[in-house]
Structures are given as C-alpha cells and as structure tokens.
Amino acid sequence: MTALRLFTLLLILFGGQANAAEIAVRSGAHPSFTRLVLDVPAGAEWAIEQQASDARITMIGHSGGFDISRVFERIDRSIVGAIEANSSSIKINFACECQANVFRSGDRMIVIDVRKTGQLRQEPPPRFEETFLQFVGSAPLRFSGGTPVDLIELDQQPVVEETLPDIASPAPDLTDSLEDPTSNLLRPETSAATELEGLQIAQKKLAERVGLAATTGILRSTRRPIESIEPDPTPQIDTSVFDTSLDGPQSAPIQSLAGSNIRISSSSDLPGATTGLPSSSTTQGMECLDRDEVGIQDWGGQTAFATSIGNLRRSLFSERDTANNDAVLELVRRYLYFGFGAEALETLSIAPELMTRHRALKDMARVMEYGSAGSSSYLAHFADCDSEVALWAILSTEAIESSDNVNSDAALRALSSLPLHLRRFLAPTLSERLLAYGDQDAAMTALRGLERAPEPLPAAAQLVMANIELEQGGIHEAQGRLKEVISSNEQQSAEALIRYVDTSLDANVDIAQDIATLVEAYATEMRNDPLGQELRRTHVLALAKSGQFSAAFEALEQTRPTQDANSEKNVRSSLMTILAADADDAIFVKHTFESMQTQPMDVSLQAKIKLIARLAELGFHTEAEMMISMHEGFPVTAENRVLRAKISLGLGRPSEALAFLGELKNEEADRLRADAKARMGEYREAHALYETLDNEDARIRVAWLSDDWRQLLRVSDPVLGAIVSISKSEMNTSDEIAGMLERTQDTLAESARARNAIQELLSLEVGSSGD
C-alpha cells in the first residue's frame, strides 16, 4: 500500500507540470495606495517593466497564469483601473499618474504597491501619552489615565509604531502604518456620550485593520479544523478564574495558541522572519512536540527483536486482564523502530487513552504502513519545528502545500540520526515530498546518505532519484536509472515502467516493442490493482510509440469498459497525437478515417489540430474542414489561421484564404498569400511576394502568366529569359548593300536562337502538362 500511495503522488506531481498552478492575486485598499499581493512559490523571481500608464510584472519561469478574479472585490478603480493577465505576467493599468513599487515579503509573497506619483510618505501618528485602552479585571471596559508602562506590567507588549515602506528601499512588510485606534479618543474628563463615540471610532478602525490584515495574509485561518489538533478538553473551563480570594487583578498566564483557529501577526511575523515566539514553537503559535514523542532512534532496546517483542507482549495485560499502559507504549515504540506500522496501530488500539495522549505515535505508525497519516494528520502542523518532529510532519502529509513553512534542514538532520534500516525506508519518501515542494537540493541530500551506504540504493530511492534527474533535465540519465528499477523486479518496477514510457513520450523517443510487451504483462498481472488502469493506459501508448498502431487501437477498445469518460478521452487524444506525428501515410489515413466513421472525434483540441494539419498536408482538405466544423468555437490563433487558409486554398477558395490570413505576417502566411493571389489572377502581386520569399520557380511561373511578362521576367531567367531577350531584340532592316552579308548572318543566328528557345519552351510546357 505504501508504494501505491507513493505512485499516486508521483502521478499528481509529474502529470500536471506542464500546467503549473495559477498564482493567486490578492488586493487591499489602503488610505494612500493600493496593494496587490502575489502568493508565489519559494524562491520565485520577477521582473518589472514600468511605463507612465501601466506596469507589467513578469514571473520568471512561471507559465501557469494568474487568478485575478477577485482583485476588485476589495479595492476600487481610483488607482488601479484594470488588471490583465497572461500565462507568465500581469499588466496593471493605472487610473492616475501612478508608480508601482514591487518587493518581496517573506519567502512566498511578492507585494506590489501602486501609489500616486509624488505622494509623500505618511508620518506616523503621534504617540499618546496619557490615555490608552486598558482592561481592568472584572470591571467594565473604561478609559484610564495610565501610561504604556502600566500595560507592560500587565504582561503585554508595548505598542510599536510602524510606517509605510519607503519606495526607494522597501522593507519586506505587508502592513502600512497603523493609526492608533485610541489616539482620537477623548480624555476621561469628557462626557459619556463623547466617550461612546470615541469607542465606536476605535471599533471601526480596528475592524478596518483586521480586514486589511486578512487581505494581506497577516491574519489567516489555520489549515485544518480545531478538532484535528486538540483533544477534547476536560474540564471545558478553568474554574480557578472564579476564585474570589485574590486581592486584585493578576496577570493570567499566557495560554498556548494550539487551539486557536486564526493567526494574528505583525509585519515582522512572516515566513522565515523572527516571530518573537520561542524557538520551540511553530509560526502558527503551536508549541512543538517534545523530542521524546518522536525520538524513534532511541526505541530499539538492548535485546534482540524477537526476545524484546516476546517479553513485551507477555506483559501487555495484568492478572486482572487490564492493559498495562507502560508495556503497550513500549511495544508500540519497539514496533515502530523496526518499521512495523500495522502491528503498532493494532497494539496502540489496546489502550485508547494512549491514542489520545500520544497522537504522534498513531501518525508515525500510519506513515510506516500507508506512506502518510492522511488528511487528518496531527503531526503535519509541526513541519517548521527545528527538531526531529519536522521529519515526521513532512512524512505524515500526503503533499506539502506551496504556502507551507517547512524546516527541511531539521528534517534532514533527523533523517541522518536514524538507523540505516529506517533511513533506507524513509529517505525516498522524504525526498519525494521535498521534491514536490520544490526543494531539489534538500531532496537530493535526503538520498545522498543512502548512496554512501554499503548496500545498493533501494528501488524506491532509485525511482525518486530518476524524478530528480528529470526535474533537472537529465532525461538520458533518468531513463537509464528507470531501466534499472524495471529490471530489479521490485514493487516499484511497474511505477518505473509507467514513468519510462511517459518520459519517452515527452522526449519524443521511440519505444522498443519488448517494452510494450512488458507493460502488457504488468497490466494483466495487476488488472485488479489500483495501478492496473494506469498500466492499461501506458500499454496503449507504448504500443503506439513502438509503431504497433493497430494493436494500440485494439487495446484501447478493450480498456473502454474500465475507464471513465475523461480518462478514455485523454488516452485517445494521446494516441491520435502519436498517430498524426509518427504513422506513415497509409496507416494514418486508415485509422483516422475509421475513427471519424465509427464514433465522434472525441479528442482534445490539441490532438484534433494535429490531425487536421496532417489531413491538409496529405490533400484531404474536405475531411480536414469537416473536422474543424465538428468543434464549436475553433480558436482563432496565428497557427490556426494559417491552417484554415491552407485548407481554403486546397478547396479552391483563395479569397477566403486571404480573409483568414488578414494582416498576419510570417513566411508561411506570405507563401499562402502569394498562392492565393496567383490563383486569383493577381500575378504582379504574387510575383512581388514570391520574389520576397526567394521562390524563383514560382516567381518565374507567375511572371510568365502575367500580361507584363516582358517587364517581370529577367534575361538571366532559365528558358524564359531567352524569350524575353528575343522579344526585346530589334532586326536591322537597312537596305544598304554594305554589310548585308553580316546582317544576314546575324539574322540567321537570331532565328536559330529563337527556334531553340521555342523548342525549350514547348518541351517545358509539355512536361508541365504531363505533370
């Protein structure tokens, strides 16, 4: 089961890399500027091109587009008039004389502040000296004439002034200057009505600031519900707060934030920044687990496995048949040390109270057995702890979200401290998680320790290493490693075989027929396995890439009852794409026409365009146009306009071809435009286009057909140049006796040249008619 979960994750990771995830664009309205925040992967780089009316921010290496659907839900159009996005950049259109300022905030946020040109930086509000808001025990909320020193004495932090980031040198800060909500409140000697009004102002300002914090990500909800973090509290309240024996207000101890469902932070509380929390806390404010909770390297014991397990099992229950919790806990840890996840889970179920007190053990056992702890993982919340728990937090989650904070260094340190048998088992999974997170260096480091071990690298590690090499562009090296995994006949061989075929398709490399046969054998053996459907898909594509198209279509028909509609469409689309690219003309025409006759052409648009282009290339213009008509809303791109113009020319509609080409300018469009002009009898324009394209044969042909052939043809042109020369020659018709013999000889020679030119022209015309 662990391998299957691993493979499912690999499919998710590598199946969709061609379309990277969209970058969310959030917005916030500030008193003096408009802020846009891009949630980007770690280490993302950008470039900005700024003009008077707009600014374009390009994310280098990104091609997944941007989600700008909710930008104007929180801002008006007084500063930012409009936002346009394509696959790699966003364009911000200014509604004023504005300037955009871009800077990084933490590892995963890029901030764009758009403010009016020349706008002065706001000064921080004055500090209040006499009045501040203070909670005084059980008394009602009131205004007191205390000082900030009193607030510090109540175990609070002093208020810190924050100012807008300087445009010239922006600080990594997501908040603008915070106005003091109480600075405008009246002094204690004012009336009660005025105090109420001041309180309402403070409440309004506080609500506005909370909204801005939520917009910029400083205030955000936790990733999982509270129930997955905290056990049921008993009792529900702390009755000590009702103790009236205290003489006065006391400073309550700071409670753990583990049960909190929001995170409140200041501009300095950002990923990767100093949070002010203890080093044993996460950025979410949760206290990290004690090392003893996950210190698996210390759970091996001093005796042999069989002896220690036997002794512990005999002491699980007392004489009264009640569970010995100490023995149960020791046995669970011993099982985990040796990698027995299912046994550890079963043993832990003997004492349910241990399941509540040691929730980490349950997640560790599930990691051992299933490869992760599932969506309700408890350990997943501690991935940024600077201790051994970071390792198990990463392993317990099925996939690390791009916005998560992960302490990969702590996880690698914890991995290196494990015994070799656990490292060989856990290192591939850790490397896989880190690779999916985007940290290739850490993923490689996780496997490097195994390479130095005396035993050969396990198949699971080889598979992950191949994925890393593919990420780095080493297709040849990765395929060689995948072949080793395939020949090892291990649990990962089927996964490696699928990856090998997919890699060959991406690199457009032919596949040997024995590979297709091996895929078929695995597909038959694992037909009832969750991996079976993926193997059947791979079998169809391997047959096609090895040139066995008839067998591939037969295999596709056999897989139809076991596939859903989307899966079948994807496989058929891939098959038809390979058919259009690799099949010879007869095979292509046979299977394409059969597919068009027996069922609707239910394939992707990309596959359909490949088929249409191949049909047009072979002269099947009617069928190509029919396939276009079967797709509603055929996209109007430059490539498709050229394709449709080619089909229109093939169907004898040159005017329509010119309409499709429009003002499109490229070599292929100019060639088609020249052909269309020639078919319409506009030979002079066609001649000019062919001359630009350096197509001498076509230029001479349309020049000869033109009424202006004497001007368009050149004397140096083969065959027809002689005709031009003869047509432009003048006979000497003088009747003087002197020189008559020489003139007669010249005339006879000119006649011979004309006769030869006519014979060559006639032979050329006969040859053309024969063609």
Fold and architecture overview:
By secondary structure, this protein is of the alpha+beta class. Helix content is 48%, strand content 8%. Helix 15 packs across helix 17 (532-545) and helix 29 (720-728) runs antiparallel to helix 30 (740-770). Residues 1-19, 120-190, 221-279 and 766-771 have low confidence and may be disordered.
Tell me the layout of helices and strands.
Elements lengths: L1 H14 L7 E7 L4 E6 L6 E5 L3 E6 L6 E2 L12 E6 L3 E6 L3 E7 L4 E8 L15 E3 L7 E3 L3 H6 L38 H25 L3 E2 L40 E2 L41 H10 L10 H13 L3 H8 L3 H6 L1 H12 L18 H8 L11 H9 L3 H18 L2 H12 L7 H13 L3 H14 L4 H14 L6 H13 L6 H14 L3 H11 L5 H18 L2 H14 L6 H13 L3 H9 L8 H13 L3 H8 L5 H13 L3 H10 L3 H10 L3 H4 L7 H9 L11 H31 L1
Parallel strand pairs: 1-5
Antiparallel strand pairs: 1-2, 2-9, 3-4, 4-7, 6-7, 8-9, 10-11, 12-13
Helix pairs in contact: 4-5, 5-6, 6-8, 9-10, 10-11, 10-12, 11-12, 11-13, 12-13, 13-14, 14-15, 15-17, 16-17, 17-18, 17-19, 18-19, 19-21, 21-22, 21-23, 22-23, 23-24, 23-25, 24-25, 25-26, 26-27, 29-30
Assembly of the depicted chains: single chain
Number of helices: 30
Strand content: 5-15%
Coarse morphology: extended
Give the total of beta strands.
13
Question: Brief description of this entry?
Answer:
The chain has 771 residues and is of the alpha+beta class. 48% of the residues lie in helices and 8% in strands.
Annotation keywords:
771 residues; single chain; disordered C terminus; disordered N terminus; 30 helices; four-stranded antiparallel β-sheet; five-stranded mixed β-sheet; alpha+beta; 48% helix
